[in-house]
Amino acid sequence: MVMQIGIHIGWSSPNMERLQTANASSIGPITKEQASLVASCTGFGGLLGALLGFGLFELLGSRNAILLVTSCLSSQWLCLLVAGSRGSIGWVYASRLVGGACFSMTYNCFSLYLSEVVDSGVRGTCISIAASGSAIGIVLGLVAETYLPMQLSSSLYLLACLGLLGLFSWLRDSPYHLLKSKDAARARRAIEFYQPGRDWLLELEQVRSYVEATASFGLKERLAELRAPPVRRCLLLIGLVPALPLLSGSLALRSYMQTILARARSSLVPPEQAVIYVNLVAILASLASVGFIDRFGRRPLFVASSLGTTAAMLGLALHFLQTGERRAELQWLPIGCIVLYFVAFSVGFQSVPAALLGELFSDTAKNTAAFVSTLSTAFFAMLPVKAYQPMVDLVGEPYVFFVHAGLSFAATPVAVFLMPETKGKSLQEIQTRLVARA
Domain extents for the chain? Predict the structure, then answer.
């Protein structure tokens, strides 16, 4: 599922050039204004997804929410198939809009689902494995859209979505959702299904304790809970934690990587090939670091990502401050900094936000937390990408990278002073500690 979002991100780079080239596809050539609108649709769709997703998880449960979002993911590829057959740019707009809405909801769906069905000892690892699917999807999207016709690649993506729908239709609802629905028998079977060999009675009582703590809350009690100091603190955190990795420049770097390397006069590897190699390194880093989150904890990994991405952005800024022959002598530096950035990003920025969303909140506050996280993700995914080129034109590359370095470093005090450590704790234990800490 997360891989589909990676494909959505990777789709842009090859197709933006293809759509603006005569006879390169059945659509176009399109104008620069139309290309800009295609790029913007993902951001607008993300904001729309945040609004539409409000209440989705509480009403449907995390598994059914995944089924709905996967159906929407399927519809974006259907839109591209129609666009190719009719030669209509309007269907491309629709595809990117739907994909943007799914982008903002997917990270919340999978993290909430996994936090409810996976054992606390490996919960972070499982979320990290799922989050690494984004890097894999980006490379698949880049390669497929470079070498395959749009209609063929879209058909393959659609088949993968249909397979996902079949898989999640077979899986069971989480025991948390089933106990909220007062179906203890199915909740027991769900625990035995997801955690075979465990003491199902003990697990069932822990789930029941977590759900019943807020089960009788009406609207007044829910609003009062949101005003409680530990919940307000966590809502602030869950707004900042997805935003800071995006403000550090991750999507802007992915979108403009080829341009950045060309302007940096880096000729060690052709820029178009370097993009693929860097994303392959990002995949390896993601897979290598999946177990770190349950070994070292959420807070240390977030700090490590913050410091690593800060160093990478400072290196890029310093490279662009060089001129003439000196820049040519340092042509290894931009590639090295970009590789360092994505390796550091994979360590904590990629997985910690998703893990915390599923861990920090009571059953009744999760819906509001998911809305805050989705809105933050959608807005701050769009802002750096849209602002990058105007900022470069205004102040130049070095100062843009200095800004991203500062925003990357801002994640360190956020982790140190705001982020609780949730490694190895059950959801009920986390709530107990948050209340005691307040």
Answer: 2-173+222-437
Contact (Cβ atoms closer than 8 angstroms) between residue 110 and residue 5: no
Q: Provide the pLDDT for residue 166.
A: 93
Whether domain 2-173+222-437 has CATH 1.20.1250.20: yes
CA distance 23 to 36: 20
Residues 6+ away with beta carbon under 8 Å from 120: 424, 425, 426, 427, 429
Sign (positive or negative) of CA dihedral 58, 63, 69, 75: negative
Q: From its phi and psi, is residue 320 left (phi > 0), alpha (psi between -120 and 50) or beta?
A: alpha
For residue 229, say if its preceding peptide bond is cis, omega within 30 degrees of 0. Answer: no
The residue type at 234: C
Q: For 12-36, how does the pLDDT look when each residue is reduced to its tens digit (9 = 90+)?
A: 777 776 777 766 567 767 777 787 7
Q: Helix/strand/coil (H, E, C) string of the chain?
A: CHHHHHHHHHHHHHHHHHHCCCCCCCCCCCCHHHHHHHHHHHHHHHHHHHHHCCCHHHHHCHHHHHHHHHHHHHHHHHHHHHHHHHCCHHHHHHHHHHHHHHHHHHHHHHHHHHHHHCCCCCHHHHHHHHHCHHHHHHHHHHHHHHHCCHHHHHHHHHHHHHHHHHHHHHCCCCHHHHHHCCCHHHHHHHHHHHCCCCCHHHHHHHHHHHHHCCCCCCHHHHHHHHHCHHHHHHHHHHHHHHHHHHHCCHHHHHHHHHHHHHHCCCCCCCHHHHHHHHHHHHHHHHHHCCCHHHHHCHHHHHHHHHHHHHHHHHHHHHHHHCCHHHHHHCCHHHHHHHHHHHHHHHHHHCCHHHHHHHHCCCCCCHHHHHHHHHHHHHHHHHHHHHHHHHHHHHHCHHHHHHHHHHHHHCHHHHHHHHCCCCCCCCHHHHHHHHHHHC
Q: Are 169 and 89 in contact (CB under 8 A)?
A: no
Mean pLDDT on 58-81: 88
Spatial contact of 43 and 386, defined as CB atoms under 8 Å apart: yes
- Tokens representing residue 120 in the block: 């606390």
Does this model's pTM top 0.90?
Answer: no
